[in-house]
Amino acid sequence: MSYRYMRLIVMFDLPTISPKDMKNYRIFRNFLIKNGFMMMQESVYSKIAVNQSMAKLIANRVRENKPPKGLVQMFIITEKQFSRMEILVGEISEEYITDDSRLIIL
After folding, report:
1. Which pairing describes strands 38-41 and 71-78: parallel, antiparallel, or unpaired?
2. Is 11 in contact with 76 (CB distance < 8 Å)?
3. What domains can you pick out in the chain, each with its CATH number?
4. Quick one: pLDDT band at residue 86, thresholds 50, 70, 90?
5. Strand, coil or helix: 35
6. 59, 74 contact by CB (below 8 A)
């Protein structure tokens, strides 16, 4: 069976002025974390999906749980494209899976 791993990347800029805005921010961020997204940097989260149809299902769930205000952007790329990301400043985190093998031992 062949898998084409996809990576969903969600970027957001949400208002945090009022207490209600802060609550919406926390709810959305917790939704991402509980659904397996990992933080790449502040307000940028990613999640790996087994194939494109699964990535679309995950994207629909993000759309259903988006906050009422602010900017949320999302895109889907292949895992191969994601692995070619160039780190210009900073260090590579070992928390991210950059291998497309099926079994990964942590």
Report:
1. unpaired
2. no
3. 6-83 (3.30.70.240)
4. confident
5. coil
6. yes
